[in-house]
């Protein structure tokens, strides 16, 4: 008769094999799917400021702000 540890090991190994098969199945069903959708990008405002940099003495750095809109139909 098998011990409790032996049975637990067998159950764990079987569960791991089933999970590996499910993972491979999910990969196969999505690997070759066409995922390209039309995307519209609109930039409305671009701004650059020269601000103080507190990492060094009397340093200044450029800080950029970009406002944009992205629209895509991802439910295709």
TrEMBL record:
<feature type="transmembrane region" description="Helical">
    <location>
        <begin position="12"/>
        <end position="32"/>
    </location>
</feature>
<dbReference type="Pfam" id="PF04573">
    <property type="entry name" value="SPC22"/>
</dbReference>
<keyword id="KW-0472">Membrane</keyword>
<keyword id="KW-0735">Signal-anchor</keyword>
<protein>
    <recommendedName>
        <fullName>Signal peptidase complex subunit 3</fullName>
    </recommendedName>
</protein>
<comment type="similarity">
    <text>Belongs to the SPCS3 family.</text>
</comment>
<keyword id="KW-0812">Transmembrane</keyword>
<keyword id="KW-0256">Endoplasmic reticulum</keyword>
<keyword id="KW-1133">Transmembrane helix</keyword>
<dbReference type="InterPro" id="IPR007653">
    <property type="entry name" value="SPC3"/>
</dbReference>
């Amino acid at each position: 008769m098998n011990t409790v540890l032996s049975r637990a090991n067998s159950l764990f190994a079987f569960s791991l094999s089933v999970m590996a098969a499910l993972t491979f199945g999910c990969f196969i069903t999505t690997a070759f799917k066409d995922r390209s959708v039309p995307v519209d990008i609109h930039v409305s405002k671009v701004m650059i400021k020269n601000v103080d940099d507190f990492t060094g003495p009397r340093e200044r750095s450029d800080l950029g702000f970009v406002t944009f809109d992205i629209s895509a139909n991802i439910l295709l």
